[in-house]
Records
---
Amino acid sequence: MKKILTVLIIAMVAFSLFAETTGTIAGNTGQTTLTLEASQGGKLYHGFTNTNHDSSSAIVTALSGDATGSYTFGTHLDLEEGTDPQSIGYYHLYTTGNNQVKVTFVVSPLHLEVGGLHYYVPYQLAYTKTSGSQDVTAGTVGTAPGAPTISEAVVTGNTASGDIITTTNNGLRWATLSLTALFNGDSNADLPESTGEGGTGDYTGTVVANILVL
């Protein structure tokens, strides 16, 4: 009798489990979705170096630690050389922002004050895009004021400016420009001696890169 009851109990349990697995399951049985969101800020680096960085990652490495990207050309220029352009370093641009940017150079002549007089030595600034993406367009050769006579150099201090780079499209845009300076060497032969040693009191000038976000 006990065996019969045991068999009946097992049969009832089995029937109960079978009924649950084949019945209707209550609740939400439709599709569910996990949505992911992320934001990305734009980056903008630009500046001067003495190295021809030929990749976007190299530009970021070189400039991300220096917010200004300022650079002093360490080799003295020959003011009396008027035939061969002299290398003065490189300018780099890296941007991932959605806005376009335009780069303008403001070029000042080299200057020295000695004996109460001011001497200004203009030069031709040339730039060539050596590497970069097709979304960055470099302008034509930039030119500072023409090399003066000594009398003009004493009394005149001029600057020249112009658009150098413009960008298009979105995403990563980058470029490296090679920069050179060309002097009118003959007109500089009679300039006075610089007044210092080790770089102090030399003729000095600047090229300033300004960025306009369009």
---
Amino acid sequence: MTRYALAFALTVLTAPAFAGATENAALIAAIEAAGCLVTTENGDAVTRAAGLNDQQVYAAVAALYDAGQVRLEADGSMRLITGACK
């Protein structure tokens, strides 16, 4: 996720959220399966598990951020906030 940490942050802060429900659900499932946290170590694997391209991931992250379902951490990781992830 090294390349994704900054991209996630920039996307969340600057891009409009155009991800569909399918993309959001795929990313949520992949992050939950990874323990609810996307880090530099597991980011690429989470992206592959979601089956989304970079643009879809960025849009889904922005949509989840806008919905209050993800939180960017000081260390550059991203925490998912759902019923399965507190």
